[in-house]
UniProtKB/TrEMBL annotation:
Protein name stated in the entry: Protein-export membrane protein SecG
Chaperone found in the keyword field: no
InterPro entries: SecG
Family to which this protein belongs: Belongs to the SecG family.
GO molecular function per UniProt: protein-transporting ATPase activity
Keyword list, A-Z: Cell membrane, Membrane, Protein transport, Translocation, Transmembrane, Transmembrane helix, Transport
Topology term for the membrane: Multi-pass membrane protein
GO BP: any one term: intracellular protein transmembrane transport
Functional note: Involved in protein export. Participates in an early event of protein translocation.
Superkingdom assignment: Bacteria
Entry's transmembrane regions: 50-69
Organism of provenance: Kandleria vitulina DSM 20405
Signal peptide from the UniProt entry: none
Ion transport keyword on record: no
Length: 73
């Protein structure tokens, strides 16, 4: 039963990670010398904030399930 839940959580985690917006523009601009706000504090808002929180929750759940499955064997 736990293996099936782990599989569902894994697929959900992959999907949520793919839905997030890329944050590589700042790194590329910093390396090429273009003007960038790499170190400016930008707060996530809206759907980005929701996706980040869902990713964190799914990641924690993934590790807890993996540990529980391993302890059960």
């Amino acid at each position: 039963m736990l293996q099936i839940i782990l599989l569902v959580v894994s697929v959900a985690l992959i999907i949520v990670c793919l839905l997030q917006t890329g944050k590589t523009e700042g790194i590329v601009n910093a390396l090429t010398g273009q003007s960038s706000n790499l170190f400016a504090q930008q707060k996530e808002r809206g759907i980005d904030l929701v996706l980040t929180r869902i990713t964190i929750a799914l990641g924690i759940l993934f590790f807890v399930l993996a540990i529980l499955i391993r302890m059960g064997n």
